[in-house]
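Why does residue order matter? Because the sequence determines the fold. Keep that principle in mind as you read this record.
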Amino acid sequence: MSHIVTIQTEIREVQALRAACRRLHLAEPVYETARLFQKQRTGYCVRLPDWLYPVVCDTDRGQVHYDNFAGRWGEQKEFDRLIQSYAVEKTTLETRRQGHSVTEQHLEDGSIKLQVAVGGNA
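Structure:
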């Protein structure tokens, strides 16, 4: 049976965030306080390509803080790729923790289709 799922992502798991960074060939996220223009935020900082400020992930609250000044200080697509990669990695981790298997298919439009086989029969 097939189901379409929409996921609203909160970044809460550091292991999945680290895996997302590896997937995108980014540096490991570092827990620190970072300046985002005029404010400071504390959390796991991810440095995206050509972004002026890091993305700060507050895993306790599931919140993500960033300032790319409407694309002037960093391309939105880089952030979107991070969120997509986190969602894939988090889903894969949870699926495997429950004893199931998952296969991944990259679609032409840039989306990623995950297929979960209950009981690990992928």
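Residues 14-120 form one domain.
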